Fold each of these.
Amino acid sequence: MPDTITLELFRYHPDRDERPRFQAYEVPFREDWVVLDALNYLKDRVDGSLTYRWSCRMGVCGSCGMMVNGYPKLTCAAFLRDYLPGPIRVEPLSGFPVERDMVVVLDDFMQKLSSVKPWIIRETAAETMASGEYRQTPAQLAAFKQYSMCINCMLCYAACPVYQHEEQFVGPAVLALAQRYNLDSRDQGNSQRYPVVWADDGIWDCTFVGECSAVCPKHVDPAGAIQQAKIQSTVGFMRSLLPFGNR
Amino acid sequence: MAEALQHDIVIVGGGGAGLRAVIAAAEAYPGLDIAMVSKVYPMRSHTVSAEGGAAGVIKPNDTLDEHAFDTISGADWLADQDAVELFVREAPRELVQLEHWGCPWSREPDGSVAVRPFGGMKNERTWFAADKTGFHMLHALFQTSLQHTQVKRYDEWFATRLLVEDGRCQGVVAIELRTGQLRAILGKAVIMCTGGGGRIFPFTTNAAIKTGDGLGMAYLAGVPLKDLEFVQYHPTGLPGTGILITEAARGEGGILVNNKGQRYLADYNLGTPLDVGDQRHPQLRSMELGPRDRLSQAFMHEQEKGNVFEGPYGTYVHLDVRHLGENKIDSKIPFVRELAKNYAGIDPVHQPIPVRPVVHYMMGGISTNISAETVLPGLYAAGECACVSINGANRLGSNSLTELLVFGAIAGRNAAEWARSHPGLNRAALERQADVEQQRIAHDLINKHGGTERIATIRTELQLAMESGAGIYRTQSSLQATADKVAELKQRYANITLDDHSLSFNTELTSALELEFMLHIAEALTHSALQRKESRGSHQRTDFPQRDDQHYLRHSLAHHTDAAPRIDYADVAITSWPPGERVYGRAEEPARTPPAAHSGS
């Protein structure tokens, strides 16, 4: 095992830099260190101006996604040992405007997240709390559970070849989230989500490359969600042509 | 400075409590202008890391009285019983509300919500979404909040100070991370929902953001911090990283084993182990399902006896779930398997998990009453940053997720009422205060040159001092040494240096501001612990090993002064359950003074 490993870090400061540059740093190599540990080591001891987001360091808050050797990863789950002998190149998530160093702008993603109305919609008036929980069998739960596991880390956007060129594309995580609610037995809001999901920038933009599902750290399978939505949309369209076909 | 921003209510913190408060306020008065200020995007908040579940009585074999008694005895009688009664009464409704908002609770075959046992509970009452309960609750709350378009979110704005004028809290000063601009964000009421400060310790389950900012802000504004000496060590964290392995692993039947292969909890008055194949295992309020304080203390004794394993990151014992089998592990505790594989390099289906006690939760916090009000008019607090208190000297597992719902909602509704009846804001005076704050931050931090102390150095020394002197077992001399060290570090903080003097997304600046809050709450915690000369729940003084109800059945209140904190005390509300012995692992009947002043279910 080597004593050290080299990190090549993307550096960009909007007030100072015309264009980004790469800066190389040597960090101690430790068998159980992840890329995030190396960044924290540098921030604490070497260069306090290094800028990146992180929080939970256990793969659930979704803050620390970056490109590691060109591949979108949660840096809290990217072990140095898997990149021997180095160097390891770390960059901000691909396809997003950069605020500074590894920090990207989330505005577009956050706006898209709201656009699919990701909450339970009831056509009928909501039941009161006194009537207790909605019944939902384990099978009904299983129908959408996978799509509820998204941590909004946006690795799938960084991996999506469509989003890299068409930023209007609603994108994998948000379309999977729409599907998560559409498939929830408690929800009655499908028709309110269709205008976004079925629009040109919605599911039909997806060319089914499947990279989103390949990079997802939580196995959400957005590509599968989009495929499923495409089939439902076709069935829905056919139904709408039939008299009384639309419920 | 730029003009102040103004709203009706300002909620600081975008975790579970803050989001629940936002929704409650928005539902109470849809016309209300609500601001949510959070240093991270709401879905990054630490609620996301909660795993095991949320307690609330829903099954016919359970009662509100039993939930209350479990909570109060778990708290070593330091909880306020009126608050606990309110809490257990509201809990089921709040959890059903979350269900209606889409939280994917795990289910029984008939479609009803499933519950699992947790430590210190007489009955199974923990609602769960596999072992990512906090994650699912947080995302359900955040996504539900998005439909309330009157909510203005200030995502990635770091609040630095409370604005207090005419004896009322009227807003905060906050830095927009993206631009570095500092603005006053005014509101007729402010709700603190900023979480605890576990990061003052070196080895913690807490995320990096858990630096106690809200505690610091309230404390510096003159609001006392209650019961801060009570710090919960969770018995099962992964060595090295401190990543949490949920209590649900034991709720599902996992066992703790020392290096002799013994289920050592039997030696600590926690009951008699049943074979893992026995139908009655795991037994409630017994052995591995004892309360967290007692389990973490048992580990320390095992360490003294040499009954623990030695590893590169210190000593540990084994949490063994192998007998559950792969199917149950994958369906009930899949995240445990993922975390153990990634961060301990073992597969719990085939190997025991190395675990050791780890700082997890602060029972203490900003002192509030059961209406979520602080002593500062217009300031409310809820969630881990608040101390109502329902948790007393030791919180029961799965009460905290429910607490942030119950008291987040109460805070939201009450702050909305307050805002409607207190319209006036002293805008000019508040902007002047914000100017002073801007100058302070520019002068002391951003534009400062010539300092020599690195942030990380002071932070690391603080953390080590807390662990060595204010950990699971404490003495007068260990606490005094820590208090002296913290005082020294506060001095040295004045001499810190930043590498980064720019405005845009300056996370070194926010780290410095966090460190300042951490130093203040560490000082308050240590002095509160020095003054409490008894052992109760998570506060164990080897020089005062007994509980002393005569002198210390009282809440401590730490007040900020220019010198050391001033500690005074407030009575504990006792309604129906007089202080008694905490009994685990054997039969007991909770003593209760009739007649019942409230209804069980």
Note: DSSP finds nine helices and seven strands in chain A.
Amino acid sequence: MNTPNSTYTYPHAPGFVAGDRPRIVTSRFEYTDSYTLQRYLATDGYAGLRAALGRPANEVHDEVKSATVLGRGGAGFPAGTKWGLTPQGVFPRYLVVNGDESEPGTYKDRLLMERDPHQLIEGCLIACYAAGLSQCFLYIRGEMALAQERVAAALNEAYAAGYVGKNILGSKFSLDIVLHWGAGAYVVGEETALIESLEGNRGMPRLKPPYFPAAIGLYGQPTIVNNVETLANLPWLMRNGAEAYTSIGTKTSPGTRMVAVSGHVKRPGVYEIINGVTTFRDLIFNEEYCGGIRNGNKLKAFVPGGGSAPWFTEDQLDVAFEGPQAGAAGSMLGSGAVMVMDETTDIPAAALTLTRFYAHESCGKCTPCREGGTWLERILSRIVDGKGTDADLAQLVEVGTSICPGDFPHASSKRLGLDAVPFPYKMNTICFVGPSAYAPINSALVLFPEEFAARVTKRTMIPVTAVGAAS
Amino acid sequence: MARLSEENVRLAKEIIGRYPRARSATIPLLHLAQQQDGHVTNEAMAHIGELVGATSAEVYGTASFYEMFKFEPVGKYLINICGTMSCALMGAEDLMHHAEHRLGVKLGGTTDDGMFTLERAECQAACTEAPCLQVNYRYRFRVTDADFDSLVDDLKSGRLNDEIPAHGTVARVRQHIPLDRGVGAVPPEDVTEAPAWMDGKAAL
């Protein structure tokens, strides 16, 4: 299929917008039958696996290390380095694929699973071969019915054709990939909660240390947890080599990444962009991408990396998709999700939609998150309804500070003469759900204080002594 | 029907066999129970406990953590309207009000005829296609009030029966590992050595 112009949207992959850029993980999205084994094999499918199996496992691992394939789940930790954290000589080791994508604003793993499940399967095979992992569990979010069907069908095809299972391609490499699916819980995207869920328990994050399940994970064994998009990069990498991979993007952020841009832009969509190079200005305003703000409106603010990320405004438009740059500017790239708000946006109400999410999704293990998240939601809700007081604003900050002590990261603001506080924050909770409930509130309060001031009434204090005084 | 049927027990055993520890199959088996009965019954949870080696309280402990498991009957069609940021920015609240009005129930409620349950959902991973909703976990994108009305009409008339199964069935395609192709799951304590291909030589 020819792409009629650089922003053609494929009707069978709703949301995805192609472009004249390198496509590492979305190269098959243009085909209506992209999810079948037949199409996969006709488009270099399983050639990366064949290339990998033709080399010793440690060499494949080294290749992935030298390509610096950054994790696409949120933390941006290089996959090759992560694989190397497993303790020497301890077996069995497992691979758990994190397909529990549920960060607000994010969707790319769903498209990769629905549109190109064989690419993910091939990525899993390469990872397990390279890192000596003896079984793979592919955990797909419970609500993603189509992704589950497509991956199940692809696995059935791959087993029948000898790409998965005993003696793959007639070699000594044998691996089972087990499709597992969740049942609706955001926190399960945290890797230790994912493992708890996979063991049949409530999906609550584990106490740290150990910081990485690579040391102690599934059934107490070394376990690698990788994101779907991260693994989907591996077949291309094995076919083309680390040098070709690092020639795209920058030295510290090579390759491409998928970014979903939603909200008040002219052409919301999922784009595969160049890592480290593309800026937020390109993405939001360039005709090649979103083409600017709807109705010719002005940009007010945007969330740069999923609901958990502190917000940016026009002052940060020239930040590129490079982790350290975003961090210094006061936020993070997270899971590749940009949510854009135009001038018509009610900022406190927008923050509430995110705080409500995290309050709802708190697993209840850590008190600051369980109690604090709900407090934040109730207080903010009161303010949004016009029933808040100035004491409520102070209370928001106090609750937020008990989840995250110290200065919470935020962007700079020319308008307000503010300097940035760099990412990350300190936290009193095991995982990031608690801080995430406060992130939108802190951003909104710091960057748009006037919208809160206009919303609350000054509290008139009734002196206690006056209550119930006689005569 | 409440315990798993004979056919489902066979399927349950096949699923359990894929994991190094049976308890890992708890969530997949809860889905199986919900597919059978439309919601998860106490008898089914006790039965799952027998199959995976857990008490029914432990199974309920797991089940009650997850949003998708329902312990009371819900409508044949569960309509989840997303209310998180991207959808909210594009009018999700208005859509929810319209849906409440159209179905005559509040969020969380079920219509008297047992056809529809309406819920506010959190982010459904379709943020560029806002506002979005799911009917029994099948997507509808950029939903207008008129779209919602015709969706309800189509579900009532049965026009979408092929596309959208009744509540309880999520994926209609299951993984099946052929006996002659599967490696088989081994309890972790039975493995001590590196896998065969980690011998410093190419596998092919």
Note: The CA atoms of residues 18 and 184 of chain B lie 7 Å apart.
